[in-house]
Amino acid sequence: MTAFTQRFAPGTNCWVTFAKLPLRPGYSSVGRVEAVGARVDEAAESAAWFALAQIAFRGLWTTDTRIGGSLVVVGAGPIRQMVVRWASAAGLGIITVVDPAGQRLRHALDGGAHHVFDSTIADIVEALHGENEAIPTTYIHTTGNPHVFSDVQRRVPRFGRVVLLGDAGHPGEQRLTSDVLIKDPTIVGAFGAQNREGWPNERVRALFLDLLSAGRFSVDGMVSHRFPPKECREAYDLLVNSRESIMGVSFVWEYSRQVAAPDVPG
């Protein structure tokens, strides 16, 4: 959507290079193997999440959070939902998700989140953990809103870790605060295409598909809207005007074999 709406600052290399118009959007597609006589429509749609799951994997990897650890995910959009599911599959102790778009939080709970907050990270006054739970020390910021970075710095505890997952359209507005000196946190970036420590993208995708098949990485209900390709204008209008009510949008090329399209808010 950053590319589609051209909402990025001049000179931001990633967006200036990638988002040139005309642009063929999308990078996650799956097909159906029919040579062996089997058709897996629903499984194929679930598998289409592999690209966003790959990005989320890179973000969680940089947290250094291990089994039993705690994590705060700031934002509950599609990539953040994948972070929650990786964290759950990895056995993290407490997973907390914060997002003012409350309708997205049910997907986080379905994916393994323990606590959810229908609020911005700046507006939360209560603790992000239960009475007998350890204070979460790691925050993954994936909202794409550069101003949230300052709020996360204010929230992270001393010697905590902040992970920037995703490239904001206006990175110059992601500013450091005095919390960096006072709290001495670790701030790291994560990029979805980086291969690290024996984990090339092919291996990450294979692990995602294995967990998906085993029922340990559920994406049930994550596709909120389906469109035939000829209705692409309606799909993108919906993404622009009602983004907070949307999770995954799927273009179904053989639409007649699928369930009926849900009602699209006007």
UniProtKB/TrEMBL annotation:
GO terms for molecular function: metal ion binding; oxidoreductase activity. Pfam families: ADH_zinc_N. Residues 81-201 form the Alcohol dehydrogenase-like C-terminal domain. Its cofactor is Zn(2+). Keywords: Metal-binding, Oxidoreductase, Zinc. Belongs to the zinc-containing alcohol dehydrogenase family. This is Zinc-binding dehydrogenase.
